[in-house]
Specification:
about 190 residues, 6-stranded mixed sheet
Length: about 190
């Protein structure tokens, strides 16, 4: 998606350790108009697929998923929580994921009542590098008995194995910007 690539080139900051900072428009301060265009693009890419719910993970995926949901007829958005809260009740799906940027492991939780066996789910998130978060969400989907119709990613680090691994397993992964390489020293970002 050219608009997203242009925005990354203009406002993205490359840091050491293959970190791409896009917090001024994607995952701290939110450009809702850009989110809307991204949602429209995913709706085009997943046209013809039945989508009953969108699944994401807190926190950065929530805004993107909610705006995208408007392009899928306003389907509900379910997000996996990274922390247990006192008002979570009932049975829950749980799995562990490792965050690439934070360098730590989280247990993620989804209340079982929000994923019904046989539902068709689209997973959406802001970033994919190693694919750990996606694999965790896919474990929850498998346990829940839902049908994963596809995976929508805003920015994929194509030089890391997450996306290719999921595609090899047969998932339709639609990343709106695939970073081929980036250089912290020069700030240069190349797209696939």
């Amino acid at each position: 998606m050219q608009e997203l690539e242009d925005r990354i080139r203009r406002d993205g900051i490359v840091r050491e350790g293959n970190v791409l900072k896009v917090d001024n428009f994607l995952n701290h301060q939110c450009d809702v108009a850009l989110y809307d265009h991204m949602g429209a693009e995913w709706a085009r890419l997943f046209a013809g697929r039945r989508i009953d719910k969108i699944l994401t993970i807190e926190a950065s995926g929530i805004g993107i998923a909610c705006v995208a949901a408007t392009h899928f007829g306003g389907v509900p958005v379910v997000f996996a929580r990274k922390t247990e809260s006192k008002n979570m009740d009932g049975d829950q799906y749980r799995t562990n994921i490792t965050s690439y940027t934070k360098g730590r492991e989280y247990q993620v939780i989804v209340a079982k009542r929000f994923l019904t066996p046989g539902e068709h789910v689209l997973i959406i998130d802001d970033f994919m590098a190693m694919g750990c978060a996606m694999n965790g969400l896919l474990e929850i989907c498998e346990e829940a008995g839902v049908i994963v119709e596809g995976i929508g990613i805003a920015i994929e680090k194509g030089f890391q194995p997450g996306g290719s691994s999921l595609r090899e397993r047969g998932y339709q992964v639609e990343s709106l910007a695939v970073v081929k390489s980036m250089d912290a020293e020069t700030g240069q970002i190349e797209f696939a």
